[in-house]
Amino acid sequence: MDYLLAHDVGTSGTKAVIVSVDGGVIATAFEPYPTHYPGSLLAEQEPDDWWRAVIGTTRRVMETSGARPGDILGLAFSTQQVNAIPVDAQGQPLRPCISWLDGRAWEEAQSVMRKLGGAKLFAVLVGVALTGKDLLPKYLWLKRKEPDIYRQAAAIVDASGYLLGRATGRLVYEWSVASVTGLFNLKTKTWDTGLMRLFGIDRGKFPDLVGSAERVGGLTAEAAAELGLPQGLPVFGGAGDAQTAAVGSGAVGESEAHLCLGTSGFVALVTARRVVGRRGLVTIQSADPGKLLLIGETETAGACLKWAARELYGAEPDAETLARIDREVEQVAPGAGSLIFTPWMYGERSPIADESLRAAFINLGANHTRQQMARAIYEGVAYNMRWILESMTDLYGFQCDPLRVLGGGARGLPWLRIMADITGHTLESVPNPQHTSTIGAALLAAVGLGIYPSVEALKSIIRVEHVIKPDPAPRATYAELYAAFRQVYPSLRELYHQLNRA
Q1: How many folded domains does the chain comprise?
Q2: Whose CA, among 36, 160, 362, 467, lies 20 to 30 Å from 207?
């Protein structure tokens, strides 16, 4: 049998999936790891935890699938993005990874924007003001706050580059994840050396760029022994999680969009147009060399549901607990008793870029139940997604309808019905929505192997499993509450800044 192996290296853990060449899921394995929060606005992970999880999940998924090592044709990674890892010449980390959740580089973000005319002008030019979570400020923070580590670093990579280095011995930067650094030229697909010079970033710290379906190398003898796979097995560039999700969803044609409900959530639309971002929307490189992704991200989607499982239900957010929450939410009328939840647990990126924001229940009374609070969480994430979708339509004319929907949050139909009703968009779910990013990474390896001629050719093999159309009955209720939701940020902005600005 011919199979592909892919890993989704996310925030909460790593998932290995063996995929058939036509996109079918053969077997999966998952291994969690922690995120460390050593201080206010700080969030770090240990890269070695990722590699240990890659080893463990690879061995388990090979065993449970019954696949032989020789059955695997190629390997690729889908990874979390907007993280920074200084490494030595052997690819070993010199410090923990600075996570995408980390907002420590606020001062550096302000410095960059002052250099380019101030926050308002920067937002006009780029589409969104920089925050302490963005990568360029994080690089400058490393140089200013940890100069010895910065000086010792042979390279600064992200999760993708670290894992590709461990697998092949070659330090590279895949271009889709490079496009979120602020130092990548989308037109030429090269590092922007002019910006690097302007901000004093050393070009030599950033390795060669590779494409998503490009062969990076073969598994080294050491990596092959650890994984239990053949030495020399082809390893491909893969892509960031949003980019592989687009591939795995089948929404890879012009103006086709998908909505992801993972730990974070986002709407991403494929286009060849190079549009200037607004309202926190940004344009990044897709896995298809000829296409870009217009993306709007909400920092916490599924993370809000995990919080509810632990804090409201006193249980781990496993499948049984999430199914229980789904059942209870279905018993609550739309609007959750006029209770509004703002899903801003780690700040927000789009359509508001402000890391000082935090989640809140608005209008919570003694009459509200746990079940209503849970439904308010589902609805709050949907309100934020509606705001992003409206921005894509208002600013650029993209209709984003229908929307492919994926991610772990797409497994439960109650949330999808709420999402369709609040956004007014028809949703199309695909098989195994929780594995879409991993399937997408595997199929990029298939393109690299020549099994498919292009990324867009993959569209024909992804089928739709469920179609969820919006119900007009709760439209008036949701319209009123959505208008109230939109008022929360301008009403509480100064308070959030007072409480949470580092």
Answers
A1: 2
A2: 36
Mean pLDDT of 392-415: 92
* Global confidence as pTM: 0.89
231 and 324 housed in the same domain: no
Mean of pLDDT values over 19-42: 96
208, amino acid identity: D
Q: Please indicate, yes or no, whether residues 110 and 208 belong to a single structural domain of this protein.
A: yes
Q: How far, in Å, CA of 326 to CA of 334, rounded?
A: 14
Residue 163 lies in a domain: yes
Q: What are 374-377's contacts with CB under 8 Å, separation 24+?
A: 374/308, 374/312, 374/325, 374/328, 374/329, 374/332, 375/329, 375/332, 375/336, 375/339, 375/418, 376/336, 376/339, 376/340, 376/341, 377/304, 377/305, 377/308, 377/341, 377/343
pLDDT at position 121 is: 64
- The answer to whether residues 131 and 299 touch, using CB atoms and an 8 Å cutoff, is no
Q: List Cβ neighbours of 385 (8 Å cut-off, separation of 6 or more).
A: 259, 265, 267, 298, 419, 422, 423
Share of the chain above pLDDT 90, in %: 85
Query: What backbone torsions phi and psi does residue 378 show, to the nearest 5 degrees?
Result: -55, -45
Reported as a single tens digit per residue, the pLDDT across 89-101 is: 999 999 999 999 8
Report the CATH number at residue 314.
Answer: 3.30.420.40
Q: What pairs with residue 258 in β-bridges?
A: 268, 404
Mean pLDDT on 177-194: 93
CA distance 285 to 270: 10
| Encoded tokens for 403 | 């929307």
CA–CA gap between residue 257 and residue 460 (Å, rounded): 16
Alpha carbon dihedral 400, 402, 405, 411, in 10-degree steps, equals 150
Q: What per-residue confidence (pLDDT) applies to 469?
A: 98
Residue with tokens 């053949």: 230
The encoded tokens of residue 198 equal 């302007």
**Is 83 in contact with 14 (CB distance < 8 Å)?**
no
* Residue 128 within any structural domain of the chain: yes
The whole-angstrom separation of Cα 402 and Cα 164 is: 35
- What is the pLDDT of the chain when averaged over all its residues? 94
Residues 133 and 21 reside in one and the same domain: yes
The whole-number pLDDT of residue 125 equals 60
Residue with tokens 């080893």: 55
